[in-house]
Amino acid sequence: MKARRPSATRLALFALPMICLLAAHASALEEGDRAPAFAAPALDGKGTVELSQYRGKVVYLDFWASWCGPCLKAIPEIEDMRDDFPADEFQILAVNLDQQKKKALRFLEKNPIGYPSAADPKGRLPDQFGVETMPTSYLIDGDGVIRYVHRGFSRGDGSKLREEIRRLLATQKLGKK
Amino acid sequence: MQRIVLSIVVLSLLLASTGCVRVKPWERDLLALRNMAWEPDPVEAKRESHIYFSKEASMPGGSGGGGGCGCN
Questions:
Q1: pTM across the whole model
Q2: What is the per-residue pLDDT across B2-54, written as a single tens digit (0 to 9) for each?
Q3: Please, is A16 exposed, middle or buried when counting C-beta atoms within 10 Å of its C-beta (0-12, 13-18, 19+)?
Q4: What is the CATH number of the domain that holds A172?
Q5: Contact flag A12-B13 (C-beta cutoff 8 Å)
Q6: Chain B residues within 8 A (CB-CB) of chain A?
Q7: B18-29, pLDDT tens digit by residue?
Q8: Whole domain around residue A144: which residue ranges?
Q9: Chain B neighbors of A14, CB-CB under 8 A
């Protein structure tokens, strides 16, 4: 029996959905990848938030938005973490992804945060990081390498995050010795 | 003739492929608005969802719009 050669149309019909699927799953940054050295305008309009400014410190980078319930649950926990670790070794940064900045500012009026938050209404940074869910946070070491990725936020995640930060700070201290 | 048909098919498929865009998790801002849900009233939404999955024998019923953070 003679094997039929697939026609160009059939190939196209097969290939296009595959291309679509591949395009939809753009690569997400994982542990071991270098974090993009970003600089974005601050949410409060005062200057810019730059990752490179915190080189040498362990950075906890949180992507959040005022419309995302779990993000809002995470914020008080993150704020509490600030007091648990030395300020000269640990820094929290946030990137707000609200399309309307005023919604984020309204939330922060009631729930003030003591760490810098950038505003990225166009979603340039989550695209670079390959954020797959909201909220997503990254633990970045002093060399700018991602050491831990935390997706979503539910009860009990705060202690898990603290554990990861503690571990990374200890590793960093060992590396310096 | 066959070549023309083939070109039309391939071109239409290429055009259609531009429509396969996934709403990214951080783009759900407007979708999360209360008035974007099929049923903004939570009690009514729960009742409708219950009827839906009872009739369709499928979970989780209704729509995925509204209130979403893309995390589930």
A1: 0.76
A2: 889 999 998 998 888 777 777 888 988 888 887 887 887 888 888 887 887 77
A3: middle
A4: 3.40.30.10
A5: yes
A6: 6, 9-10, 13-14, 16-17, 20, 22, 24-30, 32-33, 67, 69-72
A7: 777 778 889 888
A8: 32-176
A9: none
